[in-house]
């Protein structure tokens, strides 16, 4: 992917995440391309970030190549360094998923949207911002080989093989948390068994479902007018 394409994709994904209600004034999504990561700039509004406002950072040592990366860029770098297959990372502060880590209740899979995350989403037990390499490493350690990690009192981090998968997983993570929070007000949710998780994930986590979700999220942003100048 060229630099222009990478910048455009990150700007698009950032606006899509904002329109989807996952990003407020905070939140970032990045793309790894070769030795570099592209990430929405720290000052720009998430709903109107332009390709020119996307910052570029070296994965290996965090050197800023262009723009102003967010303070929590080390969170992204920590995930990229620990997980060679990861090519997109999102970090945001969603209401429902963050609430689980805050009250110490496990974000289990009891709805289909949770299946791609396995039995339970791990927790990084430090509410401070992830602003240096040591914290990024610690977060990646708790993330291990999962697709997401909850940051107690703070937010979530999601990792994926590409940007459409990262956006899709970000939506699913909060969707599962919202449904679980609602179910908990009625009764005790029934966790999926290993076999159920495997079967549902196989049905749900398919290229056409990911593409459908990514297209739908883009169309919602387009209808909202958030992509007019992209
Ligand atoms: Zn944060």
Low-confidence stretches: none
Q: How much helical structure, as a percent, in the residues?
A: 40-55%
Shape: globular
* End-to-end separation: 18 Å
How many strands appear in the DSSP assignment? Answer: 8
- Structural domain tally: 1
- The amount of beta strand, in percent, is 15-25%
**Small-molecule components bound:** zinc ion
According to CATH, the homologous superfamily is: Class II aldolase/adducin N-terminal domain
By CATH, the topology is L-fuculose-1-phosphate Aldolase
CATH architecture: 3-Layer(aba) Sandwich
Q: Secondary-structure element order, as H and E? A: HEEEEHEHEHEEHHH
Features:
230 residues, alpha+beta, 7 helices, globular, binds zinc ion
Give a structural overview.
The chain is α+β, with helices and mostly antiparallel strands and 230 residues long. The chain has one domain (3-223): L-fuculose-1-phosphate Aldolase (3-Layer(aba) Sandwich), CATH 3.40.225.10. The chain is built from seven helices and eight strands, in the order H-E-E-E-E-H-E-H-E-H-E-E-H-H-H. Strands 4-3-2-1-5-8-7-6 form an eight-stranded mixed β-sheet, with helices on both faces. Bound molecules: zinc ion. Zinc ion binds next to loops.
Helix and strand topology:
Layout: H1 3-19, E1 28-33, E2 36-40, E3 54-58, E4 64-66, H2 73-82, E5 88-92, H3 95-103, E6 123-124, H4 133-143, E7 148-151, E8 155-160, H5 163-186, H6 194-204, H7 207-223
Parallel strand pairs: 6-7
Antiparallel strand pairs: 1-2, 1-5, 2-3, 3-4, 5-8, 7-8
Bound molecules: zinc ion (ZN).
Quick synopsis:
This protein has 7 helices and 8 strands.
């Amino acid at each position: 992917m060229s630099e222009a394409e990478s910048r455009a994709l990150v700007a698009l994904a950032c606006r899509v995440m904002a329109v989807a209600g996952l990003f407020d004034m905070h939140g970032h999504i990045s793309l790894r391309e070769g030795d570099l990561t592209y990430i929405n700039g720290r000052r720009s509004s998430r709903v109107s970030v332009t390709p020119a406002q996307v910052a570029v950072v070296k994965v290996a040592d965090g050197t800023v190549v262009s723009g102003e990366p967010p303070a929590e860029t080390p969170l992204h770098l920590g995930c990229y360094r620990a997980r060679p297959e990861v090519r997109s990372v999102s970090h945001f502060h969603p209401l429902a998923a963050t609430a689980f880590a805050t009250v110490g209740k496990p974000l289990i899979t009891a709805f289909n949207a949770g299946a791609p995350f396995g039995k339970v989403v791990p927790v990084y037990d430090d509410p401070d911002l992830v602003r240096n390499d040591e914290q990024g490493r610690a977060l990646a350690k708790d993330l291990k080989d999962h697709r997401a990690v909850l940051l107690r009192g703070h937010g979530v981090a999601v990792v994926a093989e590409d940007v459409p998968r990262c956006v899709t997983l970000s939506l699913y993570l909060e969707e599962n948390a919202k449904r679980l929070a609602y179910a908990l007000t009625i009764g005790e949710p029934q966790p999926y068994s290993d076999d159920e998780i495997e079967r549902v994930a196989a049905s749900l986590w398919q290229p056409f479902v990911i593409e459908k979700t990514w297209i739908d999220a883009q169309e919602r942003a387009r209808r909202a007018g958030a992509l007019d100048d992209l």
